[in-house]
Amino acid sequence: MSNPDINISRRSFVEKSATAAAALTIAPGVFLHTVAEAKPAKDAVTDAVRWGMLIDTAKCASGCTACVSACNTENGIASHDRPRTDQQWIRKVTLRDKQTKHEISLPMMCQHCENPPCADVCPTGASFKRVDGIVLVDRHICIGCRYCMMACPYKARSFAHETVDLTVDYQPRGKGTVESCTMCVHRVDEGGTPACVEACAEAEHGAMVFGDIKNPDSEISKELVKHGGKQIRADLGLNTGVRYRGI
Amino acid sequence: MQQFQKRMHNTLITIAGLALLAFSAFAFADEDSSEKPSFAPEVPHPTNGSTECVQPEDEMKKNHMNYILHQRDQTMHKGIRTETYSLKECINCHVPKNSQARFGDDEHFCSSCHNFTGVSIDCFQCHMDRPMGSKPTGKNPHGAQLTPTVSTHGASNE
Questions:
Q1: Helices (H), chain A
Q2: Is-contact A90 A196, C-beta < 8 A?
């Protein structure tokens, strides 16, 4: 760390090569800006960014579960063959208008609220919002009371009823605690994109856009300016980080 | 009187002799224990060839828990993901890939000492006790991969 010039040039080299690789392999725009914003591992996250997601329900294909599968694989979520109590970080929901019979399909997960009710009710401080807007459970101090599951209007959280057989080391999970979508925080901290967004792009639907909603030049901000994005249950005043189009 | 002096002299010699014997016994015992402790558990050393830990060995023996605890909160709440004091890196360095030893076994890096000292920790109720990519523990009989299904919750935007 004695010569900062060396590190800067090395970082810009890595950024350029990573950007070039991403442009070749993945739909344009998904990686480009996030790679440029990758923070060094030793730096703390700041409130200069707020991570968010924009989901276009018109592009979300009915019956496609690419995002759900990707989430399960990424975070090592396995079934116990008991659907009512299996953990679920993201789920597909179909909405049907009873009059017109028009159906829309959308992925539903933690909405990463600015004012998260889960954090309000948590008796130990285990539910919290990181300064960059990602809502997490600190399972080191979670006592498994499940108040947050009751408080969440989006039914986004699950309780681990049984011993977890871990398959990944970056996402420790265990019996007796509450868990939910982390917006793939382990990827985001390294400048990556959540697994569901990546899977959606790979399935050639491109219904999900991830990015910094505080940065006016990010893809998500431009999309939000152009098309807008609705909050689910906006009346609750939670200012969600996940927005939807076409609902 | 002369007899008393002689007895005294003999006693002194005996005491001196015993003291010398005891001292030499301790001296030899010390030499022995510095070569090989007979009672402490063998702690498995890194398998990647590195000989130095992130702090001197004595410091790590006494204070490793403080380093890990500090790093835990830094990572969880601030997103600081340096590797030096992370539990994941302890495991990656000290537990051989595809090792059959699980936490709780005497051969496992962490439990080799924790079993001996009788200190129970709950790190590995959630964290992996082996490097990623190793075989799953098979402790969970229901560990099938979740098959995603489309749920149609009774919501309608009527």
A1: 4-25, 32-36, 66-75, 117-121, 147-151, 185-188, 195-202, 219-227
A2: yes
| Interface residue of B124, B128, B146 to substitute, partner A, most A CBs within 10 Å | B146
Angle at A176 between CA A193 and CA A170, to 5 degrees: 30
Fold of A43-245: Alpha-Beta Plaits (3.30.70)
| Residue found by looking up tokens 């697994």 in the block | A195
Q: How do the domains of chain A map onto residue ranges? A: 43-245
What does A219-246 look like in DSSP terms, one character per residue?
A: HHHHHHHHH--BPTTGGG----SEEEE-
Among all residues of chain B, which has the CA nearest to that of A173?
A: B126
Structure tokens at B134: 């190793």
> Is B156–A98 a contact, with Cβ atoms under 8 angstroms apart?
yes
ipTM above 0.95 for this complex = no
Neighbours of A190 (CB within 10 A): 16
Phi, psi angle pair for B30, to nearest 5°:
-60, -45
Size of the A and B interface in Cβ pairs below 8 Å? 118
Angle at A64 between CA A60 and CA A68, to 5 degrees: 100
pLDDT digits (tens, 9 = 90+) for B32-66: 445 555 577 777 778 777 888 899 988 999 999 99
Of B131, B137, B152, the CB nearest to A165: B137
Q: Among A69, A94, A164, select the one facing B152 at the smallest CB separation.
A: A94
Question: What pLDDT is stored for residue A164 in this prediction?
Answer: 86
